[in-house]
Design a protein that fits this description.
binds flavin-adenine dinucleotide; single chain; binds FE2/S2 (inorganic) cluster; globular
Length: about 280
């Protein structure tokens, strides 16, 4: 396999503390169809970059009779707040229960332990100028912390969800326009239609997006046609999270890149058509 160093150079890569560390669950709450689990990471950095991720595993009850989930699961943090001088950060994770790992993490209760590795990967570069944030489904997680960072500048978030229950996650945002697939809340449209309208009005923006592969491919194409710069937080199955297994490669104009060390945020312009699929 031709694995290129690509656009991201070594100094941009995260030098994470690779040893896993134990964090405590502070609280867990439902937000519509999702769950937000907040942990106190007292031994990690206080300032992870929006778009970076952590590998998580519950201290207990990880690996049932069938052995699953065995490996830790990759999750973007959706909110981070420093705990105080050199005391790490309170990290929140937005969970969509799709399998044994996310189900166990969503069932964590206050005071339970969670193994954390991270922050991993390369996050969104700090925006300058007009920013359009686009999130679809569980992909709103890294968009929320970027929105928190940009809130003073009033960055608009365009959010798309399957249903009204999923759209409750929009409550976490202070300035968002919502679209739903079934029209039950907000506009009856795909979030990419909202993006198209925004770009037709004023294409002088940088787009920051995370969501399902089909949505990211549409964002890549829309921005490519209009020469609008875009940073996309991509997903793939991740076994290790720090570059060892090569399970997370995506095709780019610079060759294959490992999403866990060169991403998960990549410039849309370097992606091959459909690379996120
Ligand atoms: C960088 C990164 C950040 C992520 N952030 C979040 C987050 O904030 N919140 C969240 O809930 N999830 C997030 N995920 C996705 C999560 O890690 C996976 O869905 C994980 O596999 C769930 O584990 P599980 O044991 O619950 O389900 P699994 O048994 O692993 O998978 C259940 C189902 O989901 C499908 N699936 C698994 N992984 C993916 C994937 N990457 N893309 C598409 N389909 C998949 C499987 O084919 C299967 O059908 C993130 C993934 C990455 C790589
Ligand atoms: S998840 Fe192992 S190399 Fe990326």
């Amino acid at each position: 396999m031709n694995v290129s160093e690509g656009a991201r150079v070594d100094e941009e890569r995260t030098l994470a503390p690779f040893g896993r560390r134990l964090a405590r669950v502070a609280r867990s709450e439902s937000v519509g169809a999702y769950r937000v689990v907040t942990v106190e990471d007292t031994r990690g950095p206080a300032d992870p970059r929006p778009g970076q991720f952590y590998m998580l595993a519950a201290e207990r009850g990880w690996g049932g009779d069938d052995g699953r989930p065995y490996l830790p699961r990759a999750l973007s943090f959706c909110r981070a707040a420093p705990l105080g001088r050199d005391r790490g950060a309170s990290l929140s994770f937005l969970l969509d229960e799709v399998g044994p790992g996310t189900r166990r993490l969503a069932a964590l209760e206050a005071d339970e332990g969670v193994w954390l590795t991270g922050p991993l990967g390369v996050g969104f570069r700090r925006p300058s100028g007009r920013a359009l944030l686009v999130g679809g489904g569980i992909g709103v997680a890294p968009i929320l912390c970027l929105h928190d960072e940009l809130h003073v500048g009033g960055a608009r978030a365009l959010l798309g969800f399957r249903s009204a229950e999923h759209a409750q996650a929009a409550r976490l945002f202070s300035y968002a326009t919502v679209a739903t697939d079934d029209g039950s809340v907000g506009r009856h449209a795909l979030v990419t239609e909202l993006l198209r309208e925004q770009l037709d009005d004023d294409a002088s923006a940088t787009v920051y997006a995370c969501g399902p592969p089909v949505m990211l491919e549409a964002v890549r194409a829309l921005c490519g046609e209009r020469r609008v710069p875009a940073q996309l937080a991509l997903e793939s199955g991740m076994a290790c999270g720090f570059g060892a297994c090569f399970g997370c490669v995506v095709a780019t104009r610079h060759g294959y890149l490992r999403l866990c060390v060169d991403g998960p945020v990549l410039d849309a312009a370097i992606l091959e058509v459909g690379a996120g699929h």
